[in-house]
Specification:
Number of strands: 19
Strand order of the largest sheet: 1-2-4-3-12
Low-confidence stretches: 13-20
Strand content: 15-25%
Radius of gyration: 22 Å
Number of helices: 12
Length: about 450
Amino acid sequence: MISCAVPSTGEIGAAASMRRGACPSLAAPMQTGDGLLVRLRPDDDSLTIPKVLALAAAAETFGNGIIEITARGNLQLRGLSDATVPALAQAVGDAEIAIAEGLAIEVPPLAGIDPAEIADPRPIAAALRMALQKQRPSLKLAPKLSVVIDGGDRFGLNAVVADIRLQALSTPDGVVWLLSLGGTAASGGIVGVLKGDAVVPALIAILEKLSGLGTSARGRDLDPAEVRALCRCEVHSERPAAQGPVAIPGIHELGHSEAVLGLGLAFAQVEASVLISFLHQVKALGATAIRLAPGHAFFVLGLAREAAAAALGLAAALGFRIAAADPRNAIATCAGSKGCASARMETKAMAQGLVEAAPALLDGSLTVHLSGCAKGCARPKPSELTLVGAPSGYGLVVNGAANGLPSAYTDENGVKSALARLGRLVRQNKDAGESAQSCLTRLGAAHISAVFEQG
């Protein structure tokens, strides 16, 4: 964690042309369709309600007031300019919001407070950051390299892709940490287990190796057997039992009388004025802080159970996602044409139209990806249904990513009815108890494409 450096206007102008393979920051914002974009990775422990209020006010004053939480749980502020980024950086510093820079070191959103966790991962994360700061010369790593340290709580990061992953395991001899490389918890290459004081030196050794391979090297490029020897890991080939994901929206008990309130942003965005209104109301109910979470979500901390129930009602009235059954949970969207010059779809409006026209698709069994262009920034991996903005209208990719070959097309005038036809297809063909995903799989891609495209 470091304090915010206030960049000069000239520095920003040069940085704004950065390649999209890097991560936008206060020092290096990214040019988008609605101005400059800044991504922040605040230290979760620093996000008290007053500090988030200050940040939201700064987003409204110096940007266009649109605040996003990314799929990995980072903050993005939109609509900035060369002239306003330094003022935003100053406001972040004045609010004493600690911003993590450099290597992304991620822990679950309720680390240290979820009674279900096996071990608190934050001390390891802090020790790793400190060790990296002492490296001379500094390590040169891939811009999007990430380390996940998962203590095994209910809201763990099993589904988050990481270059290096530590997972806490409970054994008769105490807690050990399972080390794996690349992918998710289910797909990463297992290296072995580490204990106690050996953990951080092992992580540094892996990062040094990656640095030596160049700034394009990722965890998947390393051989697990070689890393096992490098780090002197104990052999371990068994993965932890897979746990189903726990939906973040809703009220979650912490024991005694305390609860946390999980909320999601509708289509990954919220207006600063809406967030400010909500935070003032929940602060009056006793809320003390928030923690950002993957899946465009966040938790509200400090609420008693009764207060959490009241806050849930307030959140619903303001348009937040409050339940696992919310159909908006099943839609992934990028910024769209309002926020990106490359996009050929106004994704937020399209998403709302999808909720209205085809609710049968959105039972939570599948993801509908609405992508402004073929880059697929919101969801690089395949989805059951991907609608992609194209020069002549919209292409539908079935069981593929946004860069896949569309199997059906429609234009601006026909897209709403095309989506409605897909909704009817599921509604009329789904067997009792069958999910939308199972129904579409049974019907097949050719049938889906024909229904979408018929005029």
